[in-house]
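Q: My collaborator sent me two sequences in one message, no labels, and asked for predicted structures for both. Can we handle them in order? The first one she listed is below.
A: Yes, handling them in the order given. First sequence, followed by its structure tokens:
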Amino acid sequence: MSTGRATVGLVGPVGPVGLIHGAALLLTLAGLGSTLWYGLDEPGNALAFGVLIAFGELTRWGARRGEREPAPLAAAGALAYALLGQSGGRPTTHGVLQTVAVVVAAGLAGIVPHVAQGRGPDPDQLARRVLTVAFAALCFQPLYNAGIVTARIGEGPPYALFLLLLLLLTALCDAVLAALLRRARRGHPFGPLLRDELRALLGIGSAVGATGAVMALGVAVAGLWALPVFAVPLLLTQVSLRRYAAVRTTNRQTIASLARATEIAGCTPPGHARRVAVLSRAVGRELGLSGAELTVLEYAALMHDIGQLSLVDPVAGGATAPLSPEEQRRIALLGAAVVRQTGVPEAVARIVEQQADPYREQPLPARIVRTVNAYDDLAGTGADGGLGALERLRLGTARDHHPDVVESLARVLARGGVAPAPPG
């Protein structure tokens, strides 16, 4: 049975990833080959946008792993070149394949210093960049070069609305690609992943799209001098987002350190809080939580046992699942009081406080923390390990654990989950 699951796990993710990477590679080869064969149309425009994209790739310095758009200026420049119809009042003639060639060549030139430092780009992000830029150019360039856009839409507000529609379609295309790649890599449900990507469009994604469209419109009227003018605001936005991300990372590290206090004091087994947090986040995503909800859930799972620090007599083995409901409730209240003094969001304290309530009265995050904590406690103390712990949780669905949460936990564990605590 385990061999069958491993086979599915290997074959499943390869398909979508291979198709997306293969399509991006074919487009790249076609673009570069066509441009080398026929030459560049408007070399000045190609050079200016190429320099902007390469510079945008250089600004990856300081980007963190997993960042949705580590090079927003490069993405905006690529999008602007795909949607460029005029330059200084004169129509452009570059097509889809040249757009892809310039974007790829400039992007590769910009990432050379990163590769030299051992920080190569994410292949998934490169594939997404090629495919989304090609999609935007394919929707715009043939229509504009054939004169259909100017004949049917004209200039002014209708033209800007047309670009806005293309931006929305391109953003949707990129979100679908990103969700498909993450689904293939991690095995999470597609729906919540797509919601995550769509919500992210309200942040840096909207800034990239707006800057790309404004660049295209600005160059159409003022020429290439508009590029540096419209690049500065996005660079400032990127710096601000990096600082905000650094603050969030510091907060997460602080909370993780506080969670380890129960382990250092001998109240809980080593790694218990981290295991519960990782597994709770996976179960939360399985049940449709996303974005900020998952962050709050993770923080609550890390700090769910911190109330044990206030106990005069430590719980044997740190396992709270076998305790009476009254004792579990007392530990939860003590933990919530501690959490409220740490400065984390109030929602975290409420989840810690509610984890010992009857599950029919709990919100979903508290149900998840309760069930995952019980699983890790039971898997670490039972002789039959994880399978026996799951069976005991299923037997407790009438009173202690919500059936949907237990079955979601089982699905996560079947895909790999996290390793259960060692017995004893």
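Q: And the one she listed second?
A: Here it is, processed independently of the first:
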Amino acid sequence: MQQATDFLDESEALSALLAPLSDAEFETPTQFKHWTINNIIRHLHVWNIAADLALTDEAAFGEFIAKMMAGVRGGRLPDFEAEYLGGLSRHNLVAAWVAQFRAMTPRFAAAEPRHRVKWVGPDMSVISSITARLMETWSHAQAIYDVLGVERGDSGRIGNIVRLGVNTYGFTWKNRRMEPPGPMPQLRLTAPSGAIWEYGEVSDSGVISGNATEFCQVVTQCRNIADTSLDVSGEVAHQWMAVAQCFAGPPQNPPAAGTRRRADRGV
């Protein structure tokens, strides 16, 4: 399953970014809800564990969800994640996260892609589960790349996130209890390789064209559309890019314009 390999490669890229950090840098607040780098890696690690349990041990996954629901009822999700991991942090946390994503990848690669697994919301296919882990890793990593002042060099594996953005066009509106204002706008995106990725049909909904990475940043809500160079034409296209959401959960709004950007410094 290519998506499993892509998840592994994206995780390894983030691991390499973290390797030279000092202990103090793991406490650096990012532009994502002021979560520290520790908070973000804990979040990725905990939900990788959860996805792996959903694949391999449905009863244990149910127990995890019960703990999570009880843990967040009286506090914040990062507090539950820190408690669940016994306060694991910094390079010890990274080592545990790396061991987990390396161990789970072959299990997902060997699984039947259409097999259904439990999740926090509706059940999903195995291929959707590992694609979601790839998307979460890529999108949460953006806050770390940003705060460290590093420009990420993307690869063709972001095509998975582009397709997720396409496939969740209807979800974006349904999640907000709205009907889609029209057919999905046509996409003409330039891949990291320079190839053109096209989705959708010509319609009155408009066209979105430009850099595929920036499209991924918008649908994962890592960037406000105003902070990208995407060319957006058509009323429906503008409405979609203002609220696009390719991840599960209640409706979220994108960051305000100018609040999520790469810091002007190096690691």
